[in-house]
Design brief:
- The strands form six sheets. The chain has a seven-stranded mixed sheet with strand order 14-17-18-13-12-19-20, sandwiched between helices. Strands 9-8-7-10-11-21 form a six-stranded mixed sheet, sandwiched between helices. A three-stranded antiparallel sheet has the order 5-6-22, with no helix packed on it.
- The protein has 14 helices and 22 strands.
- By secondary structure, it is α/β, with parallel strands linked by helices.
- It is globular.
- A hairpin with a 5-residue loop joins strand 15 and strand 16.
């Protein structure tokens, strides 16, 4: 049974869409209909916009220590409800229940971190040139915010927007994905039950382009934050430009993994195999282009294949399952297209390469070797359980190949040579670099890419600053 009642949150009230429009919510593991997702009408969106304007007045005037108390209570409620929220996440998104609980744990940590960091939105005093003057730089909340997020991390994507905004003193309208709405609703209920004032947080659903055009066409939101694909990010940026909204764009990637001959191969395999197939590869920082130096290449391919074959795939609610389904049927066709193209370019499948079963959207963990850089999978982000592996000879060669795409989110390196590590850290054109481990996303560290992977950061003091603006005040005695 699906644990969450799906509703819109507008002006502190839970409601259905005023025009009664809905869409089915499907379980990707069973294809069963779980619930109906309500759509907000234009009237509903206008109410949410006005509510966010009024909520901002209240929230920005609330002392940071009191804002932190509300956020801490919300985090405590999430902790109490973690089993229910994680189950909701697994039912609507498909990832194993253990992964879902880890994700909600991250949601809780982010909420607490931003609540605390909001008390440290410091300004500074600047020594004056005028005798008797006082020069102050003040940080203040940028204003009501709008956020739009993808389906692959229904908790993480949502909380980075909500907690960043609330910690800075902003109100927010958020449109989670209609494919994974319940996790966001459950999180929002925790904030409302914690005493968040009406209008500070508003949650809406609907036809994505209709909602984004309506919300971004208003002058009320002064900040936009988006997690999703590059084409949609560019579209939202264009819409935001009409009203000069500040943007944070966390977009797609195509993360290279560089494994040098001197690497600890077993360590690299253990780290990357599990990380590759986490969330069925539907992760923007997922390792997606494996460059392995010649002398290590065969052992790495054999070890990766062995680990991929051992992964248990199934319904995320079942015990022992390590990888769930893809989000929708359309993604199965995409996987088949990537694999067929790679084979046409001379790649060899060492395991997987096919759909699994006749119910649910399951695709086998897949390893491809000898994949040329001209294959589509080495150019376009696969966003699925596909691991293409290719050899390289020299440092300069692999840097050039790793940096050959317009994406620049995450990258990973394995080497036991400290000098080589420092050199490639500088050379890789990405916003995140993990050396000898894959953990590049924590609540207290900045998360974001460069080039076509977007701009701006979530997490860390940079993520709080994204929701703040700078005011300079200078005064003299009268």
């Amino acid at each position: 049974m699906y644990p969450e009642k799906l509703e819109l949150l507008i002006a502190g009230e839970w409601c259905q869409g005023s025009e009664g429009k809905t869409e089915d919510l499907l379980n990707p593991a069973t294809e069963d209909v779980l619930a109906q997702v309500p759509h907000a009408s234009a009237v509903d969106l206008d109410r949410a916009l006005q509510a966010s304007a009024e909520g901002f007045k209240v929230w920005r005037a609330t002392p940071p220590i009191k804002r932190q108390a509300v956020m801490e209570k919300a985090a405590s409620l999430m902790q109490e409800r973690i089993d229910s929220i994680a189950r909701t996440l697994t039912l609507e998104m498909g990832k194993p229940l253990g992964e879902a609980k880890i994700e909600i744990g991250f949601v809780i940590d982010v909420t607490r971190w931003y609540g605390e960091e909001g008390k440290r939105a410091y300004g500074r005093l600047v020594p004056p040139r005028i005798p008797g003057a006082r020069q102050m730089v003040v940080k203040e909340p940028v204003g009501p915010a709008a956020a739009f997020v993808a389906w692959n991390f229904p908790g993480t994507n949502v909380i980075r927007k909500i907690a960043g905004a609330l910690g800075a003193g902003c109100s927010i309208i958020i449109k989670p994905s209609e494919e994974t709405p319940g996790t966001a609703v459950a999180i929002a209920r925790c904030f409302q039950d914690a005493g968040l004032p009406a209008g500070v947080l508003n949650v809406v659903f609907g036809v994505p382009d209709e909602v984004s055009r309506h919300v971004l066409g208003s002058w009320i939101p002064r900040k936009v934050s988006f997690t999703g694909s590059i084409p949609i990010g560019k579209h939202l940026t264009k819409l935001s430009a009409e009203t000069l909204k500040r943007c944070t764009m966390e977009l797609g990637g195509h993360a290279p993994v560089v494994v040098f001959d001197d690497a600890d191969v077993d360590k690299a395999l253990d780290a990357m195999a599990g990380f590759k197939f986490r969330n069925a590869g539907q992760v923007c920082i997922s390792p997606t282009r494996f460059f392995v130096q010649d002398n290590t290449y065969k052992s790495f391919v054999d070890g990766f294949t062995e680990r991929a074959k051992a992964i248990k795939v199934g319904n995320g609610l079942e015990d022992g399952v390590q990888m769930g389904p893809l989000i929708a049927d359309r993604r199965l066709d995409v996987m088949e297209g990537f694999v067929a193209d790679a084979k046409d370019h001379g790649a060899e499948i060492t395991t997987g390469g096919e759909r699994m079963g006749n119910q649910g959207y399951f695709y086998a963990p897949t390893v491809l070797k000898d994949v040329p850089d001209t294959a589509r999978i080495m150019i376009d982000e696969p966003f699925g359980p596909l691991a293409p592996i290719t050899p390289f000879k020299s440092f300069d060669e692999v840097v050039e190949r790793a940096n050959s795409l317009p994406f620049g989110l995450a990258s990973y390196v394995f080497t036991t040579d400290g000098g080589k590590a420092a050199k490639i850290e500088d050379a890789l054109d990405t916003g995140l670099v993990g050396v000898n481990h894959p953990f590049v996303a924590m609540p207290e560290t900045p998360f974001g890419g460069v080039n076509e992977s977007g701009y701006g950061s979530e997490g860390g003091i940079e993520g709080l600053d994204a929701f703040l603006r700078t005011k300079f005040v200078t005064e003299t005695g009268v």
